[in-house]
Each structure stands twice: as C-alpha cells, then as structure tokens.
Amino acid sequence: MHGLATNFVYFFVYFASVFSKNDQIFTVYRLIPRTRVQLEFLRNLFHKDYELELDFWIEPSKNGRPVDIMVGQKVQSTFLEKLTANGLNFTIRVNDVEKLIKEREHKKWRKTVLRDDSTNRDANNAGRYDIFRYKSYDELVTEYYINHNITNYVDKFTWYIVPNLNPDGYEYSRSSTNPQVRGWRKNRSLRTGCTHERCCSGVNYGSSENRCSHVYHGETAFSELETQAVRNFVKIHRQEMDAFITLHAHSQFWAFPYGYLTGYYPRDVKDLVCTCMFYRYSNLQ
C-alpha cells in the first residue's frame, strides 16, 4: 500500500509538471508613442489584444507616456513588424516573464506589484519589474500599539474588509507560472462566443467589448455574481460608509471613481489630487 501511495505521488507531480509547462517565452516590451498616429495604433492594438493574445501591462493613454506589452514568442515577429510599420521603437523590460515569476516565487515574495519607475529612468534603460515584491497589508493589526495613526484609524472607524473580490479568477491565476495564466484578470464563469474555453467577465475602465479580450468588461454593469455581491453589500451599508478603498496588485495608483461624465468631480477633488501627489513624490510608503 505504501508503494502504491508513493507511486501515485510521483505520478501526480509528473502530471502537474507536464501540464503546467509553458511552450513559449513571454517578453515585455516598452513603447513610447510620440505622434497621434502612433497613439491611435496602440489604442487599436489594445482593443484588439485578443488577435495576437497581447497583455497590456500599461495601456496607452497619451503621447510621451510609456506603454508596456507582454508578447508571446509565437506572435513576436508579427508584433515587431507592426511596430516597424508604425515607426515605433522599443526597449525590452522583461526578457522572460515566466523565469522572473519563478525566481520571485523561489524567494517567497508573495504579492504581485508592478512598480512603474519610468519617471526617474532614461527611456533606453530597461529598469526592472518588482512583480512579486512582498508587500504586507496587515499593519492595522501588527502595529496597533506602535503606530499612533493606525491606533486612531482602528479606534475611530469601522472597517469592512473584502479580502478577495474575484476568488475563482485569483485561484486560477495561481495554478501555473504561465504568464497568460498568472496575469488572468477576469472571473471563471463559462461564456460562449470566442475561441477560448472560458470567456469570462471583469470590470475595468479602459476595458473591451470583446469577450476574448483580457479586459472584457462583461455584458452589462453588475452582470457578474462578484460585482453583484459588492453592489449589494455597499447598498446595505451605504449610510455607514465614508470612504471606499481598493488595493490593486498590478500597479500603484491612487484612483477615485469620478470618470463617467466629462468635467464632473467631487467637491473635494483638489484635496484628493493633493493627497495623491504628496504620496507620489514623497518618501512615504
């Protein structure tokens, strides 16, 4: 019996290693659009990311702002031809994403954080991504008696904490070191209408209407069980809530949700911008 169990374990390990193995290298390219034509080309590429299975780590926003795209080896030549045709130069930010993931996991760095340090680097300097840099969010408990500010936060406010808004999507992203799996953004509900087994939904500004896209926004607002759960929870407690904060693993942004109408902002928008800029350019973590 012991021998059978041992053989089963060996078989399971072999099975897992075979089916988690990735057959291509994924590289992250950095592009900086300089003209309106180049920017429009990148925006069109973003909205049709499913055609080449591209993954935009930093999406196109304006001229002079970097755009980072993860590209698989199988479509690399086609991708580079498109860049050349549009006069776009590039630098390589990450040569092999899966190799970097494995190195970070070996060091047991647990949280995925993309550090965009482009403002302090030359455009030709590849820099580096701390995509698995450890970042602890348990200070509210561990520093309660040490940090006076945290003591006040805990004593004066009631905290409602949702540790994971997308449990099945997150669990799937941990199932392999394949960058296409590790960078999964959507849930895992079954859908029809594209070439993938699961065409699932997420919600995000700058999203796509195509079901096969990495950033498909869903059929309607609150079409998914995950977003419905958040909506219902907020409705129940809306009279008690003074602030709503989300922590994102991919990029370090300070965002506030007032983008659905042009020129419409909250009364304290200047305070929000000042707070954002203070943390952006200060030495505070």
Automatic annotation (TrEMBL):
Keywords carried by this UniProt record: Carboxypeptidase, Disulfide bond, Hydrolase, Metal-binding, Metalloprotease, Protease, Signal, Zinc
GO biological process per UniProt: proteolysis
Protein name as annotated: Zinc carboxypeptidase A 1
PROSITE patterns reported for this sequence: PEPTIDASE_M14
Top-rank taxon: Eukaryota
Pfam families cross-referenced by the UniProt entry: Peptidase_M14 (PF00246), Propep_M14 (PF02244)
Residue intervals of the Peptidase M14 domain: 46-285
Species: Romanomermis culicivorax
